[in-house]
Fold each of these.
Amino acid sequence: MKKIILGLMLFTMLGISGQPKYAIKFAALAPKGSTWMNILDELDASLREKSNGEFGFIIYPGGVAGDEKKVIRKMRIRQLHAAGLTGVGLGAILPEERIFDSPFLFRDTTEVDYISNLLFKRFADKFDEKGFVLLGWAEVGFVYVYTKTKVNSFEDMKEVKMWAWEGDPVADATFSSLELHPIPLSITDVITSLQSGIVDAVYAPPLAAVAFQWHTRVNYMFDLPIANAMGAVIVDKRSFAKLPEKYQTLLVEESKIYFARITAASRHDNATSIEVMKKKGIEVVKPFSEADMKRFQESGKKARRSLVGKLYSAELLDEVESALKDLRKKGNK
């Protein structure tokens, strides 16, 4: 019955939007109606308009095509052609991309922009070697921890039943450095696990916490970002090569515009989402003592170093940390 309903939904969607001659089947976890998907819909409309209806997306939002690992497998056999992925999915293709998700690495969006611009061409070349075209970054935002019970100290963190994205080495390293033992689950299982009490603490950017309705099952937000979550949009290189050259150029140029808008909108909506959660009664807990803050920073350094040789090289980590150090000396100008 679920397959029949899904089929009818997709049939209806295609009947309304029309399938273009050159169709890119696109999947993402972001739910329909979210900022991320709304701007992607606008990109699709622009592609169709500028190609006279010949070129556009067929979009599968909200994880209907499966989690990110499943989406990548479908891309490799060309059941899907493109995807908007978080660091977990991107890292399954190119592990060193997870440098962006390293715990306590970035302090603000200026630093994120600086490093993402610094590394874009290098990573685009590496994704190309893996068989994918990197169209652009689409930042998810700074990640916060949300809990059912109030956490007032570093030691209190050890008492929560923390969720961890199943198979995510960065989450494993982060929570290990914090001396936590999280419960690994697929992202699609989080809301039911919060409802049943399997977990009582989760982490996500505020916009994602609201979009996935996780905020309806927690009471507190810890006001210290543990990481910045980077997202990106990639296209299967073989599918991209089959497009007429004029549509390859169109996709690349339009993507630059719309993915920059996604990042800007995500940052705005993340701030707005915090206000939404406050109105729902979620209490924002301010950072711990100075000693606890120092322990968080030291844990971040430990976690980042523990991933050397597993995800990225020591040289890459040194380069990024050195670039950030120099930027901070200049006052982030």
Amino acid sequence: MTKFLSQWTIKDLLDAESHFHLEYVDDEDTVVTVMQKMRTKKISSLPVRDSITKKFIGIIDVLDMVTFCCTKYATVSLQAWDSYQQMESFAKTKCKYLLDISGRNTWRVMSQNRPLEDLVAVLSNPHAHRVGVVNERHEVVGLISQSKLIQFLWKNRHRLETSLQNIIKSKVELWTHIHTQQVQTIPQTAAVYDAFYAIWQREVSGLAVVDVEGKLVANISASDIKRCRFYPIIGQMIKDLYTPIKDFLRIPESATDLKKKHHIPYYIHKSDSMDKVFELIVSEGIHRVFVIDSKMKPIAVISLCDILRRFLESSSH
């Protein structure tokens, strides 16, 4: 069996997609424009194009928005009339000033002719969530995220080399100490702003939301900033930021309601196999799966970055 990651190119991944349309914003567009487009298109990042040269100069994503939110509203007033001017300034800020303010979102481009293994190497970096793909004329012909890459690997799992197939078949318990991240939690009674501040300060992309007993009840991530209302009208954004997470995410009262309303976060047990993780990530379009114990308490989290890093390690051996 040939080594899939080294024999295939990035172009093979692009060709496997049924269609591609590059969504982007111009550097003069405002925060409100960015957030509206992210919400409408159901995406978490947008390349930024220079409005004069028409060339792409960077990328803006939800982590940049969270960073801007946390640094701008560090000492915010809960009173709408005190904060109106601040909110208006926030909403009208041009996105060119937000490029990679999180320090975790550098604009990277790769040739479509590079081996797929090179793409895995780049996207296994926790500060690289997506890569722009260029052709021989250096024109952007694609934008590949960690999610798209893992979807492609999962779809072609039967063509992977044995070492990579073994990763998919392995037990989750083999990952929980060396291939997973430490779980970052936050109480469901905390304010949404507190969650975003923790995401920014701890340099993570999501948190496990727990109840008073420490049981997993939800997941809040940087992408949830798209739920906030960014118009500076009657203090809507301030209200959203200081709403308890429980109310913001509409977390039901009981575990039964959680399952019925599909609010429960995606989780697995240590005894499960990694193929279940892949199935959840691909079918549900999620970025992390929590590992829980018998009491429903989160003990680990498996992210897209964790999986790609493990694939890279196994492929190089």
Amino acid sequence: MIVRQNGRVIVLGVVAGAAAALLTSHLLRSLLFGVAPNDLVTHAVTGTVLLAAPLTACWWPARRAAGLAPSDCLRAR
């Protein structure tokens, strides 16, 4: 549930960022060395990394919390 909720926000952010990157890449043409402004491979790899990092950050604690028994958590309080 936590990964799904955060995943929606993450995917929305990556899609909005990809759209902004494609629209503004011509403005950064002078700063790009060895990469075309609309290089789809670079955009795809960057988007994948920017999608995987926060999803892993959400998934790891949720996975650990799912392994706990609710009664143990309430008893420890």
Amino acid sequence: MMLNSDDHDNVFSEYQPRYAAVGIPTFPCSIASRKKPLVRNYGRMGLPASCQLVMKGLDSDALACMAGQRNRLTILDIDARGAKGERLLEDAQCVYGPSEFIVRTGSGGFHAYYRHGGEPRRVRPNPHQPIDLLGDGMVVLPPSRGVLRRYEIVHGHIDDLAALTPLRHDKATDRVLRIGPDPELVTKGARGDTLWRHCMRAAHHCDDLEALIDVARTRSSEMLPPIEDDRRIVDIAMSAWKYTVEGKNQFGRSRAARLSLSQSSVDALVRDPALFALIGWLKMVNRPDAEFLVANGLAKVLGWPLSLLRTARRKAVETGWIVKVRCEAKGRAALYRWGPTSRRQVRSRP
């Protein structure tokens, strides 16, 4: 269901009463460069104060509320787009229960809303899934104008927010999402290094740099105090993304699970040294089930001319060693997985 907001900028003043009718106080925010509230004390915002903002004439093209106990909201934030995001949304609802209110976010991901049941706020609690658990903190609401698109309700109505079902909890689902005690807050002196390490682990599961920057901003908000300099946050995310694109990011990669080449595959590759070297290097740093980058920056890592990398990469695709699963776009490198030739000729190391 797409909310009718046309192209005007009066989203907050128009939709504040609609959310207030189901007991959710909202506040105006800006998400042009980062998700930033436009008022103070937004974390303690109640319905009377929210209504007064409209009466004072304050408006914006985006509005938000606070997840958590106050508004009885917990959100699964799925940071994946297109068919991959839809599959993750479906899988998440199979594990955690159906959601009566689902939103497509401004970046193309999904928010699945549930009644709050004491869940914390976790960024990538399971490093193998691009899913955040928002049991606290700011959440942008539809039909806010995002960077790429408006936030859009794809299932349910605003009225459904008054009667959400809770996130399904048992030992099995908590293990999948890795819900546990609140982590120790990060203080000054350790914030930059902690954020960089977090971005290095999360980068493997981000579709592009913008998604990683969003992860970095969310993680920063959990620190005590948060990193106020947004340029520093962006620089940290860009550094982690550069390492990942160039194939240097080994965070979260297990060497014990890497693959070895069988003798038959060695015989098939030995006649093309560049292809042999590329496949061998990729198998040294990627698991059998991994999706990975073979970006142009890898040429510098290998000490090759770019033309040699491009030729070897093309041959790897043509011969079925790797398969492209996401095409390149502006600011985003292509993504690959192991192809049928690899699965046929390569065996897992015990």
